Structure formats: structure tokens, C-alpha cells
Amino acid sequence: MRRYSGKVRRRTILVLGLVALGVVAAACAPNATQSALEPQGPYAQKGYDLFVPVFWVAAAIFFLVQGLLVFFAIRYRHRKARTDVPPQVHGNTRLEIAWTILPTLILAGVAVPTVATIWDLAREPEGDVLQVTVLAHQWWWEFDYPEQGIITANELHIPTDRPVYLTMCAVGLGYDKQIAPSSCQEQPAAVGDSVIHSFWVPELAGTQDVIPSRTTFLTIQADDPGTYEGQCKEFCGLSHAYMKFTVVAHDPAGFDTWVAGQQAPSAVPTPGGPAEAGVGVFLANCTGCHAIAGLEDANGNPITANGGPDLTHFASRECFAGCMLETTDENLRRWLENPPVVKAGSWMPDYGLSEQEIDQLIAYLNGLE
Ligand code: CUA
Predict the structure, then answer these.
(1) What are the counts of helices (DSSP H) followed by strands (DSSP E) for the chain?
(2) Which has the higher per-residue pLDDT, 79 or 248?
(3) 133-147, 293-307, 321-335: which range is least confident on average?
(4) How far does residue 137's CA lie from ligand 1's centre (Å)?
(5) How far is the CA of 156 from the centre of ligand 1 (A)?
(6) Where does ligand 1 bind, in terms of residues with CB under 6 Å?
(7) For residue 94, is it left (φ>0), alpha (ψ between -120 and 50) or beta?
(8) What is the pTM of this model?
């Protein structure tokens, strides 16, 4: 055995090194706030309250089993002096009954609160509930407020202390805006970019898959005003990692102010300025996918969004492009120059806009508060 000891020592050092690296990497997670272990609302709290006891049960079993394993491995290890074969023992009815019944009881003990929590979280909340429709696109989130007549993107604004019931569906470029997402199953399923996503704001709720042709539901609620980071949690293509969003929780009065701002018509640019020229650039290039309330096409029909975010109040949003970019002139310029370079696989192509056209579009978009 001696000739192996150098190899074993090197392997031990390697394993310890990897474990240490893992610990260090975990400690420098860039976004410490995006943690399900710090619930900020009652629905996330329910998941956490289930997690804690299950974790300690699992931890106790882990240390018991691993402890016994190490103890027996040392106690009955091979010794040089011992050359005879140890007595072979087979079968012990009492022990076997015990190690069948005990895990069954433990698993049942874990299953009861787990199933109860699943049912509890799946129930539609009653009373004063805010209804929001969530449409998952490749790769950004659309949030529609049917009762308020608001459509926004990548920023879900909610009031504090009020349940928000999300009705969710994954849609593709060719989805039918006329079909309510509650009848998501009637949406064409296999349109290129219509794939499974998953909605996750760790501090406010557990995860819920968002699926083409099938409606799913999730309730979120925040205790305090603030911004909570969310993201798509199911691999959904090239820019999955950039399919982020934020949940902005306001106190009730602040939420009403936000709603009023979003319901107001978008600003009309000053005549003669670059922003007004930007309207022309927008109409010529962007209306195949994007809409801005108040704009009309050449035939006088209102423009509807088709696959791209509704930009009516673009400037009120802190981020864009699936919340991958902060809303700044610099980022807008980078984006408009060549979207797929910034965000791999972006369905928005490079339109070959001139610097002047980009300036005009930025001026227009900046006015849309
Ligand atoms: Cu959408 Cu991952």
C-alpha cells in the first residue's frame, strides 16, 4: 500500500482545494439579495417555513449516517495482524424492520407539511387581489394589468401587503393578443420562440414554470417597498441568462401614483426637435414588433405590439432588453447599433440605423416617461 500514499495525498489535497474553492465562490455570489433564505413576503415565508424543518431533519440524518459510516470504517478497518476472514453475518429481522419503518415514518413526517404547503400555495388568494398576466417571451417578460389597462415589460410593479395573482403563459412571436392568456392553451404552441420558461423572484415566492399552451399561476406578495430581483429559471435558449426582471414594490399610495402614470398617454415630442424625428424613425423601423400607445400606422390604425415590448412608457423603466441593460443613453445606443451583438440570439435584428437616426430614437424614447 505504501507506494500509493503519495498519490493518495495529492488527491486529498486536490479534493480539499476544490472544496475550499467552492466555499470561496459561494461567498462571493454577486447578488446576495436574491436569496430564498431571506423571504420578504408571506408566500416566500411559507416556503421558507417548510424548508427549515426539512433541512434540519435531513442534516440530522446526514450526520448520523455519515458519522456511523466513518466510525465503522475506522473501527473495523483492515489491520496487518488480522489475516483471518471476519465472521460473516446475514439477516437480522429486528434491525431490518426498524430500518424499514423508521425511514417510512421520517418521510411521512416530511410529506405531510410539504403537501399541505403545496396546496396552500396553489390556492388562489381571496379578497383584495391584484391580477397580473405574465407573458414569457424569448427573452423578456411582459406584464399586463387587465383591470388597469397597463402593459409593461421586465418591471413588475406591485403594491405592498397585497397578494398579486399571476396568470402566466409562454408565447411566441405569432401569438394572438386577442386570446386572453387565461386561455393560454389556445395559443399556437410551436411558434419558433415559444418555449418553456420559469418565473422566479426568490425573495417573494417559489418558482413556477411558464409554459406554451398551458396556463400556470403563482401568488407573490411583498411586505416592504423595494426592488426584488427576478429571473427566468428554466433554460430557454441562447439568452436565457439575460432573461431577468425586477419586482418593484410600492406602498399603496405609491402604487396608485405609478398606475396613474402608466395609464396617462405617452408624451408627445416637441415639434421640430430630434424626438419628433425619432417618431418617424420608429414608425419606419420598429412597429413590426413594438407598439407605443397613441401612434397610428399609415392607415390610421393603432399600432399593436407583435412579439416586442410595448414601449409606451419606456423611459419610466429602469432597465430594458430583459433587464439585461440599465436604461441609459449609452446602453440604448449600444443596443440600437446591433442588438444580437449585445444579447445573443436577440429576435431584434440590426436595422443598420445611422448615428443620427439612433440619436433621434433615443431622444424620442427618453421622452416616454
Ligand atoms: Cu426564459 Cu430561461
Answers:
(1) 8, 12
(2) 248
(3) 293-307
(4) 8
(5) 17
(6) 136, 139, 197, 232, 234-236, 240, 243
(7) alpha
(8) 0.83
